Automatic annotation (TrEMBL):
The protein's name in its UniProt record: AraC family transcriptional regulator
All residue ranges annotated as the HTH araC/xylS-type domain in the record: 189-287
Keyword Transcription regulation applies: yes
Positions of the UniProt region annotated as Disordered: 272-296
Alphabetized InterPro entries for the sequence: Homeodomain-like_sf, HTH_AraC, Tscrpt_reg_HTH_AraC_N
Species of provenance: Microbispora oryzae
Keywords associated with the record: Transcription, Transcription regulation
Length: 296
């Protein structure tokens, strides 16, 4: 049995039954399986690596699709509003994935040990093939779930090995950025958090640049490199994701919800909502809440 097949079996077993199963099996580690293709759903990515063991998924970031399939992994370097859907999934061959959070405090110490790192990368998402050197510690990590003592003693070492394989692998430059507390990615992340916390308010780029400790021109350049969006486009995606949740859970009208999330024009709200989610906001009203994403 090869490593990818072992990983698939472990994920399916730990995720549990049901056609759409998601489970956090230890802190920062989530497994998921989906038995049929899913419609586009909003997802807020966190810094993480997602390794697909079976099937295929698509993430769309600002209109750009990122497809990744069995044997590949996706790295997200910061919080990003995306739209995701499982493209290839069936009861016989479900979409199967494991996601591991990438925390700066875990990555930073390893940077001191690496002597031949690639130059820092500045981007939000990247996809690569998963090597046996990466899959092996992930498999061993998931094998500890049924053995509490092994999880307590061995799992931290396996997670460290996973991070090391990422740092020294094809996307090492990108993962390194997450651990550089004084790097530009950290500065942009502060601006992203402000937008998420104040998405209903008008954006002042000068204020965001000052928060990031950059000039306005540098901030624009780094923000767009990291997110593939301008700050205004990023805010729009946050507003639309918030609106979708409200449409499914609240009784207010489409116009009221559009206004609440920051749109002054109902027609603009409807137009941008349809462009992002492929349906009008009116069709979402009263619809049962969308199923949670399996993981990135």
């Amino acid at each position: 049995m090869d490593l990818l097949d072992r990983l698939r079996r472990l994920i399916v077993r730990h995720a549990g039954g049901g056609p759409h199963a998601v489970k956090t099996i230890m802190e920062g580690v989530t497994v998921g399986r989906v038995d049929q293709p899913t419609p586009p759903e909003a997802a807020m990515l966190k810094p993480s690596v997602a390794i697909v063991a079976l099937g295929m998924k698509r993430l769309i970031l600002n209109g750009v699709p990122y497809d990744y399939r069995a044997g590949q992994y996706l790295v997200a370097s910061l919080d990003l509003p995306a739209v995701g859907q499982a493209l290839r999934a069936s009861p016989e061959e479900p979409f199967v994935v494991v996601s591991i959070r990438l925390r700066p405090a875990d990555i930073a110490p390893l940077l001191l040990e690496a002597t031949a790192l690639k130059p820092p990368a500045f981007t939000g998402l990247a996809i690569s093939d998963a090597t046996p050197e990466l899959l092996d510690p992930v498999v061993r990590l998931l094998e500890t779930v049924d053995r509490p003592d092994d999880m307590r003693v061995l799992a931290p070492g396996y997670r460290r090995e996973v991070l090391w394989r990422l740092i020294t692998g094809e996307q090492g430059a990108l993962v390194r950025q997450i651990g550089l507390t004084g790097g530009n990615l950290t500065h942009v992340s502060r601006a992203i958090q402000w937008i998420r916390d104040h998405y209903r308010e008008p954006i002042r780029v000068g204020q965001l640049a000052a928060l990031a400790g950059m000039s306005e021109s540098s901030f624009h350049r780094y923000f767009r490199s990291a997110t593939s969006m301008t700050p205004i486009q990023f805010q729009k995606q946050i507003r639309l994701q918030a609106a979708r949740t409200l449409l499914m859970t609240q009784s207010e009208s489409v116009a009221e919800i559009g206004y609440f999330v920051g749109y002054e024009s109902p027609s603009q709200f409807s137009r941008e909502y349809r462009k992002t989610f492929g349906t009008s906001p009116g069709r979402e009203t009263g619809r049962p809440s969308a199923r949670p994403q399996a993981v990135p």
